[in-house]
Amino acid sequence: MTNGHAFQPQNPLIVQGDHTVLVEVDNPRYAEARDALARFAELVKSPEHVHTYRLTPLSIWNACAVGENAESIVAALCGLSKYTVPSHVRASVRDFAGRYGALQLRREAPQLVLRARDLPLAEELAHQPTLTSLLRERRAPIEFVVAPPDRGRLKQALIKLGFPTEDLAGYQPGESLDLALRSVTSTGRAFAPRDYQREAADLFHAGGAERGGSGVVVLPCGAGKTIVGTVCMALLRSSTLILTTGITAARQWKAELLDKTNLSEDLIGEYSGDSKEVRPVTISTYQILTHRKNKSSDFTHFALFDQRNWGLIIYDEVHLLPAPVFQVTASLQARRRLGLTATLVREDGLEDEVFALIGPKKYDVPWKEMEKQGWIAQAACTEIRLPMSEARRMAYAVAEPRHKFRIASENPAKLRLVRQLLVWHAADPVLIIGMYVEQIEGFARELGLPLLMGSTSQRQRDEVYARFRRNELKAMVVSKIANFSVDLPEAAVAIQVSGMFGSRQEEAQRLGRILRPKAGENQAHFYSIVSRDTVEQDYALNRQLFLCEQGYEYRIWTLDRPEELLPEEAAPAAAR
């Protein structure tokens, strides 16, 4: 007996007093526990046998935004735990969940009113120094007047204090736009949004009510987030500003809109380094918006946000939204805002800014669930650990800590394994992805493959992508430019030879490049080659966190000598 409750050894969870949750991977109920925790907890680490999650206010608030409540979360924890869930943890979950909706912001023209759930909360707000300039006057015991321009800054300040705000102040309708979805695409194919794409758009729109119109849709790469955005545009039928990660992504958006809606080309503008078209639908990039002459200058192109009466702003790959765009987004709270992403993980820790300024998570589907339904490819993930030569090990041993990762990442022995993998996957389109310029230049030269990186012209990128899509090119080497919004549905294999330290976000993006549905067995392969017993191997464990949370398992192959090749049993079935 534990705290008066029966010990349940068959259960996989141990909920600890510091709000962490331990999960036994080998337990028969592991998958059930993983899927439950993914709704309301954050994965912290995932070694072989015991994974660690953490309950945080933001993870609970995002869960509440998609229909969870305190009692459903507590019930899941209690039903899966070996021991009694500590009473203060249960109380914390109820407290976190109770804060969602405890503050509401409404419009009472010409001003906004912030209403607290009760008097003690209102008193707490009234005595917060960071809110002094944002709460103009206290017009009732639990109500404060807020100036409309302060709407975003207030929500930012409140979430930093641990109080998410339910924003019901409504939106400007924006310029009207005659936009409708086609039933047959411009290329002659039947078209209808998939059920989950329509559901995601409907949850965002909420029938046009104040509770809709701002939020984030989380779907795997390859699941058609662009279609979700397009359906939202068709529901709103108003002018739209679309912000993307680069020109390639911007032009993919334009091609999709022309293919699947009644919009004509003269209604869609590209606002980039090459062109400054502002039209009823305008597609721009984060790069051009954050351009300025120097660090003390104003951002040259922020005026784009005011050049039309936008009814909707779409933030593609919202997890990459640059900090300066957060600043201007704080002043755009009267515009409807849709964030699209494969992962809410941000490397800068600003997930709460996304919640406050773009909106809460409105739709999320586990990747493995999408895989089961055949909407994305099945992915086999393999980590290959190989040693370094003795000379390189010596250089690594005496190097300063900040240089060790690069020495391990650029291990020349990786080339031999890449050659072997290319032979195994000779029939498959392959992406070889790396971070260091000298390394990927060497791979491209030795393998006789085209190389795409930041300095590659857009015209050359488009030419290589086109050859790859036409199956004229079976493999190419790419830098981190391929992490973001590049539509290469044919890619079936990704070989990662170096990455951005322990970036969970990057691991998710790179796997996403190969998840478009495939003909036949619908199978993709993701390989990560790391130097054994080095910091690169340590960082690899952190990179895998997000994918483990989604249900992916990494097969690990460890080699003993730098010149050793993978054993035959490591080969995919098709190559044996």
What attributes does this structure have?
alpha/beta; 4 domains; seven-stranded parallel β-sheet; 21 helices
Overall description:
- There is one protein chain.
- The protein has 576 residues and is an alpha/beta fold.
- The chain has four domains: 13-99, no CATH class; 103-168, no CATH class; 195-365, Rossmann fold (3-Layer(aba) Sandwich), CATH 3.40.50; 371-575, 3-Layer(aba) Sandwich (Rossmann fold), CATH 3.40.50.300.
- 35% of the residues lie in helices and 19% in strands.
- It contains 21 helices and 23 strands.
- The strands form four sheets. A seven-stranded parallel beta sheet has the order 12-13-11-14-15-10-16, sandwiched between helices. A seven-stranded parallel beta sheet has the order 19-20-18-21-22-17-23, with helices on both faces.
- The radius of gyration is 25 Å and the shape is globular.
- The mean pLDDT is 91.
The percent range for helix content is 25-40%
Which value, in Å, is the CA radius of gyration? Answer: 25 Å
- Put simply, the count of helices is 21
Number of beta-strand segments: 23
Q: What would the average pLDDT be, to the nearest integer?
A: 91
Fraction of residues in β-strands: 15-25%
